[in-house]
Amino acid sequence: MTATAHALVALVAVLHLYFLVLEMFLWQRPPGRRLSGFDAETARTTAPLAANQGLYNGFLAAGLVWGLVAAPPTGHRVQVFFLVCVVIAGLYGGATANRRVYAAQALPGALALAAVLAAR
Q: Per the confidence metrics, is the pTM higher than 0.85?
């Protein structure tokens, strides 16, 4: 079960690194515009906000990687903390920004959290 939990935590970290790249560097390009549905002007004006979101996603990814490499019991505790943050952010984003955030962020975070807790 521990290997599965670690794989899911790593997957969530990779997803958040992808979100970082998308929001910080690709927001005004086709991938970011497809995600947001914004026209070029709206993407341009919202780019600083998206970059800020991307930075936070990078912090979540960094925390999850830290949790994977830290020795027990710190690693477990760090994983739980950052996965709870991911789930809360995903629930908030799904409720306030776009319902797709539930599936893209909250669900993977919740599955990884469940696996980490079950592996303990």
A: yes
> Are the C-beta atoms of residues 81 and 63 closer than 8 Å to each other?
yes
What would the pLDDT profile of 26-73 be if each residue is shown by its tens digit? 999 999 999 899 999 999 999 999 999 999 999 999 999 999 999 999
3-state secondary structure the chain: CHHHHHHHHHHHHHHHHHHHHHHHHCCCCHHHHHHHCCCHHHHHHHHHHHHHHHHHHHHHHHHHHHHHHCCCCHHHHHHHHHHHHHHHHHHHHHHHCCCHHHHHHHHHHHHHHHHHHHHC
Task: Find out whether 68 and 10 touch, Cβ atoms under 8 Å.
Answer: yes
- The closest of 95, 20, 46 to 38, measured between CA atoms, is 46
Tally of residues, the chain: 120
